[in-house]
Amino acid sequence: LKKIIGVDITHYSYQGxxxxxxxxxxxxxxxxxxxxxxxxxxxxLGTNDSSDWSGYGLGTIADMGTNTESFxxxxxxxxxxxxxxxxxxxxxxxxxxxxxxxxxxxxxxxxANATENAYYIDITDMNEKYxxxxxxxxxxxxxxxxxxxxxxxxx
Length: 155
Hints:
Elements: H1 2-5, H2 19-23, H3 29-35, E1 41-43, H4 71-85, E2 91-94, H5 102-114, E3 118-121, H6 126-129, E4 134-135, E5 138-139, H7 141-154
Parallel strand pairs: 1-2, 2-3
Antiparallel strand pairs: 4-5
Helix pairs in contact: 3-4
């Protein structure tokens, strides 16, 4: 996105990140969000959260803003952290690429609907459309370039 639209973008993630371990990574990404507020945020979490090794399940919309060990609970903490940095910034919440987890994509959409100035972007079609540009679960540079172009079209 940075190269295509020419704005400053900071990447606050790492391979294997879940909403929970992202929030618990002290003195790292989630702290840096507050140090350097941005004009907009894109969230692309959920794939690793949906795996058995994450240690928690999906939960319900009622878990937002609570300490419940669920995807809803941890994802909403990420949202709250962003709001601490910039309360008015739009948050673009991307669906997972995978079509095999519709309940997680529905959860992301519900949280976007429940969050002021937040928007759900459905990119589930990107997995099949650009599958030749994947290396395992992640896309290579060409795949991410095509996905960035599609995100721009959808925002």
